[in-house]
Structures are given as structure tokens and as C-alpha cells.
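Quick start: what a row looks like.
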Amino acid sequence: MRTDSSICWPIVVAEHGDRDGYGIGIVVTGGVRWRAVCLAFQLLDCHDFAPRLDVRLWLTGRDHLTLEPVTLLAGGGMVPDELAVALDDVLVSGGRSRLALHWRADEDTWSLTD
């Protein structure tokens, strides 16, 4: 399944990731370290850009969900160049190639996987 609903995935994963015991655990996979994705998400949120993650989800067993972040999207207007560069730097430090970050130059989106 794929969704870009306005779900705060960093909080959902923090509350359910790698859970021992009862309930569904969430495992994050993908081309960028999850910590970097969360930091980029928080940077957009702190500057009121209504971040969203486009993610792929699938069940990987009876009690585990795998989440793959595909794209980070910013809402609420154009992201200033200084903030966009800071987001690029965070995602590059998380393992993403700088050349592979943007699908379209006229949109505030960051590609997180190939």
C-alpha cells in the first residue's frame, strides 16, 4: 500500500517501532537513515511547512509492518532556499545522494528512494 496522508510517521514509528511484546511493531527500511528523515520532517514542521511523507507500507509477518519513506513533501508555500539547503544537507548526511534528492525543481519535494 502507498499513502501520502498527513500522518506524523516519526511519532507513529517512535511509539510502535521495534516493539517487543503485544501489538504491531514497525520496521523502517529505505535509502535514507530514518533519523535523517525525522530531522528533515521536524525542520519543515518547525517552520510551518506542513510536512508529509509519501510512504509504502506492507505487512511483514503477523505483527510487523514495514514502512519505506519514498518522498518528503512540504506544504504551505515555497520553502526558502536556506531551509531547502539545510534539508538537503540533513538527507545527504543520512545517506541519500545529493543528485537524487529532487524530482522536480519547481516543487518542494525530496526523493528518499529510487
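That is the whole record. The mean pLDDT is 87. The beta strands are 2-3, 25-28, 52-59, 64-73, 109-111.
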